[in-house]
Amino acid sequence: MRNRFPYLSLMSGLLLGMMMLTSCGDNIDDNIVYGVGSVTFDKPTLTLSVGGAPVQLRATVGPENATYKTAVEWSTTDSTVAIVTGTGEVISITKEVDDSVQTYDGMVVATGMKTTVTETILIGVVTPVGPGTATIKASREGKAASCLVTVE
């Protein structure tokens, strides 16, 4: 016997597939983990005085959509010169930036549109201990920022 409704099977399969996809959630990206691409500091170098006041150092983890960017590992190369302590304070700054696109020949062209981005900034406190130099680092997922600290 010949099928009188050949498209009914196809439509049923498509409908079933759409129902399964919808049941996964509204946002398919919910289960995707975005890795850290960079860690940067607001200051590449610091000059401090022995016995002087501690100084804040701000680390930014990028890109904006990195999944785990609210914590970094703070370290120093010489704790007899300077120590660093993560405060646990996290600041989010939202700003608008100009959109741009890169053309096939490598030129960057502004689109005239703006995009809102949020930067997550982590605070570390650098305390001078004794004379010398030390490198303060903040790292996450193999990416690190370095700040050369000189204590006089």
Itemize the secondary structure elements and their pairings.
Blueprint: H1 6-23, E1 38-41, E2 45-48, E3 55-62, E4 73-76, E5 82-102, E6 108-128, E7 132-140, E8 143-151
Parallel strand pairs: 2-8
Antiparallel strand pairs: 1-3, 3-6, 4-7, 5-6, 7-8
Describe the structure in your own words.
The chain is mainly β and 152 residues long. The chain has one helix spanning 6-23; strands at residues 38-41, 45-48, 55-62, 73-76, 82-102, 108-128, 132-140, 143-151. A four-stranded antiparallel beta sheet has the order 1-3-6-5, with no helix packed on it. Strands 2-8-7-4 form a four-stranded mixed beta sheet, with no helix packed on it. The radius of gyration is 25 Å and the shape is elongated.
Brief sketch in words of this structure:
It contains one helix and eight strands. It has 152 residues and is mainly beta. It has a four-stranded antiparallel β-sheet, with no helix packed on it. A four-stranded mixed β-sheet has the order 2-8-7-4, with no helix packed on it.
